[in-house]
Amino acid sequence: MFTISDEAVKQISVSAEQSDSTGMALRIAAHRNSDGSFEYAMGFDDKKEGDTIYNCNGVDVVVANDCSDLLDGASLDYVELNPGKPEFIFRNPNDPTHKMDK
């Protein structure tokens, strides 16, 4: 199951309004690089054949079936890692190069 924090939901809503994408699902994708690290992508999109759709904290999330295993148990957050520069971050227990908060 993929989860989205309250802060990320707020920013997704703002982004959807700004990009005229209100009502569209948020597509989340992951790819395993040759070094084992993960690369993530997201954007507003429609559901396509072979996709799975989840409702995470009020947001419809679309995931292609080939990404489902990579994203199982992952979460999306919106945090300010550097002062004045908030950003989306993925926390994923499946990514061997990603340090999870304990």
Can you tell me about this structure?
There is one protein chain. Helices cover 20% and strands 44% of the residues. It has 102 residues and is α/β, with parallel strands linked by helices. The protein has a four-stranded mixed β-sheet. Strands 1-6-7 form a three-stranded mixed β-sheet. The longest helix has 13 residues, at 6-18. The mean pLDDT is 90.
Query: What is the radius of gyration computed over CA atoms, rounded to a whole number of angstroms?
Result: 14 Å
What's the average pLDDT?
90
Strand content: 35-45%
The shape is globular
Tell how many strands the DSSP assignment holds: 7
**CA-to-CA gap between the ends?**
19 Å
What order do the helices and strands come in, and which of them pair?
Blueprint: E1 3-4, H1 6-18, E2 25-32, E3 38-45, E4 51-56, E5 59-64, H2 65-71, E6 75-82, E7 85-91
Parallel strand pairs: 1-6, 2-5
Antiparallel strand pairs: 2-3, 4-5, 6-7
